[in-house]
Amino acid sequence: QKEVEQNSGPLSVPEGAIASLNCTYSDRGSQSFFWYRQYSGKSPELIMFIYSNGDKEDGRFTAQLNKASQYVSLLIRDSQPSDSATYLCAVKGWTQGAQKLVFGQGTRLTINP
Amino acid sequence: DAGVTQSPTHLIKTRGQQVTLRCSPISGHKSVSWYQQVLGQGPQFIFQYYEKEERGRGNFPDRFSARQFPNYSSELNVNALLLGDSALYLCASSLIWTSGGPQETQYFGPGTRLLVL
Question: Cβ–Cβ of A98/B41 closer than 8 Å?
């Protein structure tokens, strides 16, 4: 089982609709969760982080965390063509004495005008 | 303030060669991490450095090495390049080391795209 799993997509959503991106993780002790957006040929850009169960909203973005189900999601409201990108879910983990981010493979999102 | 910077942006090498990639963290950030991202996959952790010391490494062979300088910039070295080393190499910086580890948010640089022929 992969440590962090995402549906690779592609996920196609009409402009103005809500895009829902999902992520599951295997380490029940994980405490910190991150969503990054990556445009083609570019590096990952942090969108949001969430530490507590429930919802966290930032503009058009809402992150949802359910630690009991080991599930993290990202909702994008009023989707715009500029939201078309790959969305990476990351979970904080440890290796030896180092903190690391463990990433899923990413979900490719396409917003159709 | 400038973000994380990396150089070079692109690099082409042949099998067996050696390569050095460079990273400068955000001003005031003391921790640098390196990740490898192969096409179609999420980034994979290679190293983390804090205050010029290696804090840990991921599942990468000894051909991969790194160091951090007094100004907190960092170099990643890869020896005896293989075709499979072709990837986007990402540097991420974070602020401080707290009692629970580095401040958790990591900010990525633009990356160095390495092609091994």
Answer: no
Taking CA atoms, what residue in B is nearest to A94?
A: B56
Are the beta carbons of A32 and A46 closer than 8 angstroms?
Answer: no
| Distant-in-sequence, close-in-space partners of A41: CB < 8 Å, separation ≥ 6 | none
CB of A46 within 8 Å of any CB in chain B? yes
- Residue A41 is given by DSSP the state T
CA angle at B94 for the pair A103 and A85, rounded to the nearest 5°: 40
Cross-chain CB nearest to A95 (options B40, B58, B92): B58
pLDDT tens, chain B, 117 aa long = 579 999 999 999 999 999 999 999 999 888 899 999 999 999 999 999 988 899 889 999 999 999 999 999 999 999 999 999 999 999 999 876 555 555 568 899 999 999 999
